[in-house]
Amino acid sequence: xxxxxxxxxxxxxxxxxxxxxxxxxxxxxxxxxxxxxxxxxxxxxxxxxxxxxxxxxxxxxxxxxxxxxxxxxxxxxxxxxxxxxxxxxxxxxxxxxxxxxxxxxxxxxxxxxxxxxxxxxxxxxxxxxxxxxxxxxxxxxxxxxxxxxxxxxxxxxxxxxxxxxxxxxxxxxxxxxxxxxxxxxxxxxxxxxxxxxxxxxxxxxxxxxxxxxxxxxxxxxxxxxxxxxxxxxxxxxxxxxxxxxxxxxxxxxxxxxxxxxxxxxxxxxxxxxxxxxxxxxxxxxxxxxxxxxxxxxxxxxxxxxxxxxxxxx
Length: 313
Prior knowledge:
By secondary structure, this protein is α/β, with parallel strands linked by helices. The chain folds into 2 domains: 3-159, 3-Layer(aba) Sandwich (Rossmann fold), CATH 3.40.50.620; 188-311, Elongation Factor Tu (Ef-tu), domain 3. Helices cover 31% and strands 27% of the residues. The chain has a 6-stranded parallel beta sheet, sandwiched between helices. A 6-stranded antiparallel β-barrel has the order 9-10-13-12-11-14. A hairpin with a 2-residue loop joins strand 11 and strand 12 (234-243). Helix 7 packs antiparallel against helix 8 (178-185). The radius of gyration is 22 Å and the shape is elongated. The two termini are 21 Å apart. The model has no long low-confidence stretch (mean pLDDT 92). It catalyses: riboflavin + ATP = FMN + ADP + H(+); FMN + ATP + H(+) = FAD + diphosphate. It is an enzyme of class 2 (transferase). One of its GO terms (biological process) is riboflavin biosynthetic process. Belongs to the ribF family.
């Protein structure tokens, strides 16, 4: 489990030298994973502390605000995913406009050299930081010569002839192509939320659903999905609907999950919903009976999909 810090004061004298990377890491996809694993391996090889430097909130949220796209991972999930990769420290720096105004040399000196005792820095193929994004690979190499640290830039990770990127993944998820997003993320896309009281229409239909109050920003395209539901330590099969329940004339977006063969009271519980494959578009039905028949078909198809070896999480 990584130690998460947010200020230079928390470092104290715990790091004698470090191998680090720096980035936003939205989604912690397979490109990010390759980079972070390389940092961990190099740190071990040179007897250094492995550190991932990231920011909260995302710099775009401070500099651009409302024009930013929805992020794939909120900070809590991002830090957990990074920690799971085996890094020693995550330095999650509070991002402000004042920090953004720092020249790259100032940032490197204060945070990386004096703070982290940087010995090696490994960055992604397109990473740049600092005022006007002047902190690119070429400048970092010069700063490395000045301050005594080595810099390496990794090539982009490719999948099916294209670069793995947060933008590519976000587009797939928003198009409902959650199955296609999995190889790029290294996992199924998931959202997290608390189960709340709903309209109890699912129970009346004999298909009770967990209504989820969500914090996440990015949602798959409206429709019905085969999902895995992570509840406490259990992984349970289910079918989820993202939409407005047009048959009942809802005006607000909701995420409802029918967990298969499950009848426990889980109000107030936090669950993770892992989206495996999209089954169909949301549709308005002419009768409750027609809706019930369609839900039965959805469940049969969902079971079939989740029974495939490649659908296991």
